[in-house]
Amino acid sequence: MKIKSAKPEYLEAAKHISEDIAEQLLSRINDKLYKKLKNKDLSTEEVIGIQLEIEEAQLVEWRTKVAEIRKKEEKKKNKVNDS
């Protein structure tokens, strides 16, 4: 994954996050982001913004997968009921 800067809306959201939520987000960052933070290449706010963006993309992907699974389960259920 190439590390880029966060979109402005995620940077803005990062500014308004509580310390507890920021700590939770920082606990989930990957090694590349951690190194950028440690080396002062990115600010804490920038790293949080990037992490928010990553997690949003992962959530969208997860929701898509779950919808596909539910659709398959519904087809199986209908197939069994039709038999």
Topology, pairings included?
Blueprint: H1 8-15, H2 19-27, H3 31-38, H4 44-82
Helix pairs in contact: 1-4
Structural overview:
This protein has 83 residues and is mostly helical. Helix content is 77%, strand content 0%. It has four helices and no strands. The model has no long low-confidence stretch (mean pLDDT 92).
Spell out the helices and strands N to C: HHHH
How large is the radius of gyration?
19 Å
Helix content: over 70%
The largest β sheet comes out as: none
Helix count from the secondary structure assignment: 4
Average pLDDT reading: 92
Instruction: Using the alpha-carbon principal axes, give the shape.
Output: elongated
Strand residue percentage: under 5%
Q: List unreliable stretches of 5+ residues.
A: none
Tags for this entry?
83 residues; mainly alpha; 4 helices
In summary, what is this structure?
This protein is mostly helical and 83 residues long.
